[in-house]
Design a protein that fits this description.
- The chain is of the alpha/beta class.
- The protein has a domain of 174 residues: P-loop containing nucleotide triphosphate hydrolases (Rossmann fold, 3-Layer(aba) Sandwich).
- Helices cover 31% and strands 21% of the residues.
- A six-stranded mixed β-sheet has the order 6-7-8-3-9-10, with helices on both faces.
- Helix 2 crosses helix 3.
- The longest helix is centred in the last third of the chain and has 16 residues.
- The radius of gyration is 19 Å and the shape is globular.
């Protein structure tokens, strides 16, 4: 599967066939600030339908990662609310594995003293108190799917960065979340490992996983997105249900400026004389 082509309507959802669906996740008028500083997020609102891949773009420091941390409950919010499957989850003192949201971070955060199998099985066994046989069967299925079953007894120190991030994705999937959040999951990877991790996310998109993805990988964003949310200085500047249109002809000047930073013009090179 190539990540350089626009995603075709293979997903098993009603998004592509025009059927109306209620949002799985709603972010309403979200405000996040630190003490007296200007808001990091200022009245941010958007929704995510079942099976939809929403890609959040924007310059570094605009609030993208903070947004995901607020959604999953790792950051307190100063205004607004987060609603999952019709139930308000913002402000509730619940573990995110119980809120129906799984998150994959920039850093892998694997337990170094546990094998791959134990890393991915810990949360469903301890937090969700599920049956061991059921959990291990699910772990085998998912680890085989990402090509890591043969490394199930390996420890994180022996894995490559790409392998660690694939383990982290499986760990998040093991809790059977309603929504998956991906926060710059390739930021810490060597270039040759980026593709193997993004392929896993592309496959999840084809299977109809509901996801919010923060990324600086523009080709990947263009290929995976059902909906684009462009943020700058803590505010939503532009949204689009047409990734191709957003990348080829964005509606706002700020989005055009942002996308232009990823372009290189060979004709602009110049030489200086001695």
């Amino acid at each position: 599967m190539s990540i350089n082509t626009v995603k075709t309507p293979e997903k098993t959802t009603g998004i592509m066939d025009g059927t109306v669906q209620a949002p799985v996740l709603e972010i309403k008028n979200l405000v996040k600030s630190y003490k007296s500083a200007a808001p990091v997020l200022d009245d941010v609102s958007f929704s995510v339908k079942k099976g939809q891949a929403v890609v959040v773009l924007g310059p570094s420091g605009c609030g993208k990662s903070t947004l995901l941390r607020c959604v999953v409950g790792l950051e307190d919010i100063q205004g607004g609310e987060v609603i999952l499957a019709g139930q308000k989850i913002s402000g509730e003192k619940v573990a995110y594995v119980h809120s129906g949201i799984g998150m994959v971070f920039q850093s892998y955060d694997l337990f170094p003293n546990m094998s791959v199998l134990k890393n991915v099985s810990l949360s469903p066994l301890i937090a969700q108190k599920r049956n061991k046989e059921e959990v291990y069967a699910q772990a085998e299925e998912l680890l085989r799917r990402v090509g890591l079953w043969d490394l199930r007894e390996a420890y994180p120190s022996s894995l490559s960065g790409g392998q660690k991030q694939r383990v982290a994705i499986v760990r998040a999937l093991m809790t059977n979340p309603e929504v998956m959040l991906f926060d710059e999951i390739t930021a810490a990877l060597d270039p040759e490992m980026v593709h193997e991790v993004l392929e896993v996310v592309m496959e999840l998109a084809k299977q109809g996983r509901t996801m919010i993805i923060v990324t600086h990988e523009m080709n990947f964003a263009r290929a995976v997105a059902d909906h684009i949310v462009f943020i700058d200085q803590g505010k939503i500047v532009e949204e689009s249900d047409d990734a191709e249109k957003f990348f080829s002809a964005p509606a706002t000047t700020r989005a055009k400026e942002f996308l232009k930073t990823f372009e290189f013009d060979k004709t602009s090179r110049h030489t200086t004389s001695d």
